[in-house]
Amino acid sequence: MINTSSRNYGIDIARILSMFFVVLLHNLLQGGVLHSPELQGVNFAVAWFLENLAIIAVNLFAMITGFLSFGRSFHVTRIVSIIVQVLFWSWVILALLMLFKSNLALKDIIIGIIPVTLYWYINCYIGLMLLLPFCTEGIKSLSQHKFSLVLGSLLIISVTVGFIRHFSLDDGLSVFWLLILFFVGYYIRKFGLLERIHSTYFILVYFLLAMISLLVEILCKKYHINYDIMISANCKNKLATPWHDTVR
């Protein structure tokens, strides 16, 4: 029987890695590194390889949520706690900006007070939390065979026609994509995949996918194809993560 009460320090390590990856991603993309005209040759390969390795950050967070949710009941206080924390820090940051920056636009102030559109992940995560009581009731009684069929179908759709906007996966920035990843984490815990599959497999697949993505990005650059789409494509394709080493 799987022990759901004892603390798993590997999960803490996975969270730390995810947070580091989030910081790395924002430095690479929003920091202007990936699209710098000076990014050529080896520097291009290194920067995009780091991007490919770190792109699993949000996916890993969602999978951890699913992994930890197995055998636990849902409490609405989780949503309330998240909302309170987001409002607190949003107001603190807004206050500091108003104190040290005098030319804040009214629109920015309103967004800071009511940060509904400011944090996409928080919005999606709250949506995920609202769906979980119903979804977990539906999946917790599934056999491994049926769960595999459901999960396999969702993953195949997500990495193929899921790129079409009307499927609402929104390049991996949506409630539905987080829900699929939640199912992945839940499945891993429920059926003990980490105990049955050697960690070497996860690590090899993880780096292999990162290398394949890098190759595609290099080819796109060579033939002048817009490879911005690779960022969103990676969000939905980097499912293989070195979980076995981090959660055991």
Automatic annotation (TrEMBL):
UniProt key word Transmembrane helix: yes
Superkingdom in the source lineage: Bacteria
Record flagged with keyword Zinc: no
Membrane-traversing stretches: 12-29, 49-70, 82-100, 112-135, 147-167, 173-189, 201-219
GO molecular function terms noted in the UniProt entry: acyltransferase activity
Stored InterPro entries: Acyl_transf_3_dom (IPR002656)
Identification of the protein by name: Acyltransferase family protein
Species of origin: Lacticaseibacillus baoqingensis
